[in-house]
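fyi for ur records
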Amino acid sequence: MRLLHTMLRVGNLQRSIDFYTEVLGMKLLRTSDNPEYQYTLAFLGFGSNPDHAELELTYNYGVESYEMGTAYGHIAISVPDAAAACAAAKARGGNVTREAGPVKGGRTVIAFVQDPDGYKVELIEREFDTPVTL
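which gave:
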């Protein structure tokens, strides 16, 4: 078994695609418009299945926002340098909600950015990961 994708409902598909591609450096892998059922899908990632998990953005026609609820936490992405990733995200208009620093009670360096719909994305510093250009 392996993780294939995570799905997020978004209020403005192009705005969300722009955030994940321009701010976080993902690639738009494919889209699928389904007018009969009134939704459009966009799949993004740093690579595609089967080598990488993907992010599925779902836009339901006419729905501009969703309530977050209390169950959702965040998506996590590894980066070689969390402070540099925050600086790059800010330079591209990203909203950094927690600057890079150690996690409470530990030494792992993390940071958080927020997407246009309010979803949190955790940046976890891992030196051995392949750098992703933001």
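The helical segments are 13-23, 82-91. thats all i got for now
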